[in-house]
Amino acid sequence: MELVIIIGLFIILPLVSVVCIVINGIHSGHSRLKIIISAAVSLLFFVVFSIVFGRVFLNSFTSNRFSKKLDKVFEQAYSPIVFEGKILSVQTVSHKTRDISILCVDIDNSNTSDFYRFDKYMGLKIKDGIAVVPLVTSYTSEDLRNYSYVKVNENHNKKVILSDYNGKTDTLWLDYCHEGIDESYMNICGCE
What we know:
The chain is α+β, with helices and mostly antiparallel strands. It contains 3 helices and 8 strands; from the N terminus they run H-H-E-E-E-E-E-H-E-E-E.
């Protein structure tokens, strides 16, 4: 559907506009120069339109496709995994323009004993009762250090529920996204 919109807005619409200007100019008895100038102005308008709005539209289009791809990977590989436990530490990895938080979790309860997956976008490691959970969130590592317990994907709901020592909870969306950090950081919690 997005491809049809792109072709319509950025190819067909400008061509139809130019053809209409030429036909109208011929029927109105305008000179060739006036017809050419009108067609050129119309094309210039569409070029400017394409530059200004095309980039926004294409970014949205590719972002949506990227999001769907990640959702599919999550559903296939990660969605069955459920665990909860005490937060041992929150590690911070500076990467590109932002900090990535990695939760080290001492697992109390899980439906899997060992799991490891690391690809270009996401990662999760569960080994020897420790989970390594990368999080890209608006919460800083300092914010996350205020929490003591975490429930991950409880009831397969794609959520991270963080609890502090006073019982206050906050919920984050779960995606295991790591923004392309080096795979060696999956050993940051000491489980290799």
